[in-house]
Amino acid sequence: MMAAGLLAMLAAAAADQTASRPASFSPGRLWDGKTPDFRGIWQVRDTPFANIEGHAAEKGIAASKSIVVDPPDGKIPYKPESLAKRQVNSRARATADPSLKCYQAGVPRATYLPTPLQILQSPGNFAIVYQENHAFRVFQPEGRPHFDNADWWMGDTRYRWEGETLVADVASLTDESWLDGAGNFHSTEVHIVERYRIIGVDSLEYEARIEDPVVYSRAWTLRTILHRVKQPGARIVEDECLEDTNGVRHHVSPSDPRNLLRSDYSRWKTPAAR
Amino acid sequence: MKTFLQIVRACAVVLVSTMLWAIVSGRSPRLLVAQVAPAGRTAPAAAVLRLPDGHPDLQGLWMKSAGGFQGLFIGSLDGTNLAAGGRGGRGDGRGTGGGPGGFAPPAYEYTPQAEAEKKDRVRRGYEDPEAHCHLPGVPRALDQPAGLYPVQIIQDEKYVALLHEAMHDVRIIPTDNSPHPKNYWAWDGDSRGRWEGDTLVVDVSNFNGRTWLDMAANFVDENEHVLERFTLVDAGTILYEATVTDPTVFIKPVQMRFTLKRVPPEQQMLEYSCLEGERSLQHYTDEDGGKKRREK
To answer: Would residue B154 count as lying in a domain?
Structure first.
């Protein structure tokens, strides 16, 4: 748990960030007439999942600018020893990226994956379902402390409304997840304040203020936009990631029916196989 | 076999630690709006919370209380369930589907070919997909060991979403009675719901055929079809009923029913992580094949 003073400072800094930009759009309301309606399927269009500090184009991945908005240079303010660890991670990313092992992506990484998420909402309830590895987060109303000594992939989330903005306080995160595919990382001391805001009919702004005294020299902020997925009939599909017989992990669900027919579990019906 | 028993033991450790977590903190009470049933609707026995669209409000955190498919199964080489007090076992028979609540365990009538396959799978209990961290399928997603893993229900006029703590399994069920998709085969199949009076009826199809219904090797293939019924009996109880048909596996449909009880508001959903090949040996003692020395 962090000092109240630092919390207040953080909140003030985050508020400055938001205040500097127009906040004119007012989204629809849920049936209680009060709660801003965030429901829908959302997805980023740019590629911060590869490297939130920005990256050149790679095979199959378009180039992207940094989504780090504070500090202004777009770089994560690592402590020197942490920067060295990031470089180690980065060099080993082809095998060391936790997302290759089918782990849940963690916060904030799950938000800007190249797969959609769905916000489920009703008065008093807020949850996000991420397609990747069928991860989800049930946001708990603010008021009680976070779990101590928990190190969860998707953390423990408490939220409140600040006008049109949902502000979520996330802690109890494992240090095994990365922030992106480039090896950017945090420790178990990480504390994240997320701000979700609808800024247009089909645009959801996501901001995360990330504080971790073990890894960074100061708190920093990333911000990106999610777009509403408007394809008719769009929905979150099942995504199951598992290990094949060679120990390599793949996203294998929903299955290809051709694989189904070859599956061991269908062979019993063929008399010749018995 | 030794490895399988280690897996069972490892699971037990996970279960116990999850229960310990469940004791801790929770969330503040939610605002619930009771509404009068629309004219023409049969009044339910007890006052039931409703959404503005008139349908019962199934929302909240729920836990299976009793009944269901055969639960804990610790296999032996002759197929005996050691957990149910089989030969050499020390179980007390809990989790075998009977027990409190008065719900009879479901009866399975297999085709001869499927019966042979089932016997074979009993001997290969370690192949249970859930033991390899795969999604449990339907109805097993809800039919987890009683009193262990809650499910959070969030609902609006278009969806009823089930967020299961176990296996962090998610089912977002549209309530528009839309058709199933083509060329989609999934562990949890494809769920389409509709309201029949005050009961949510869910038609589940498009299974990938790899699902086991329980630890006792009861199974289905890709022809599985499930009709589920969720009925809010009172503010704290959902009656869950499922009819499982599979013409290539069962001679007649399998019926099951159990209740979900509302979890006290001071509790909340916790995180569940499961991954095949995930090694946590530093947490287990050397006796169990782990790296930790047993404390004397």
So the answer is: yes
Give this complex's ipTM. 0.88
**Segment A73-78 long-range contacts (CB within 8 Å, at least 24 positions apart):** A76/A52, A76/A184, A76/A216, A76/A220, A77/A216, A77/A217, A77/A218, A77/A220, A78/A215, A78/A216, A78/A217
pLDDT digits (tens, 9 = 90+) for B53-103: 999 999 999 998 866 655 555 555 555 555 554 433 333 333 333 444 556
- Please indicate if any CB of chain A lies within 8 Å of the CB of B118: no
Q: Are A130 and A117 in contact (CB under 8 A)?
A: yes
Residues of chain B with pLDDT under 70: 1-46, 66-103, 276-296
What pLDDT, on the 0 to 100 scale, is given for residue B94?
38
How would you label B154-174 residue by residue, b for 16+ Cβ within 10 Å and e otherwise?
Answer: bbbeebbbbbbbbbbbbbbbb
Q: Which residues of A touch B280 (CB under 8 A)?
A: none
pLDDT of residue A12: 46
Please indicate whether, in this complex, the C-beta atoms of B134 and A238 are within 8 angstroms of each other: no
Residue B294 belongs to a domain:
no
Q: Inter-chain contact B168–A135, Cβ cutoff 8 Å?
A: yes
Q: How many CB atoms lie within 10 A of CB B78?
A: 10
The percent of residues in chain A predicted with pLDDT above 70, rounded, is 84
The answer to whether position B79 is within a domain reads yes
- Does the structure show a pLDDT above 60 at A248? yes
Domains of chain A from N-terminus onward: 4-228 (2.40.128.20), 241-273 (no CATH)
Range of the domain at B80: 2-288
CA distance B101 to B34: 28
**Cα end-to-end distance, chain B, whole Å:** 27
Under a CB-based contact definition with an 8 Å cutoff, are residues A127 and A138 in contact? yes
pTM of the model: 0.82
pLDDT digits (tens, 9 = 90+) for A150-163: 889 999 999 999 99
Q: How many structural domains compose chain B? A: 1
Q: Does B174 touch chain A (CB under 8 A)?
A: yes
Q: Is residue B123 part of a domain?
A: yes
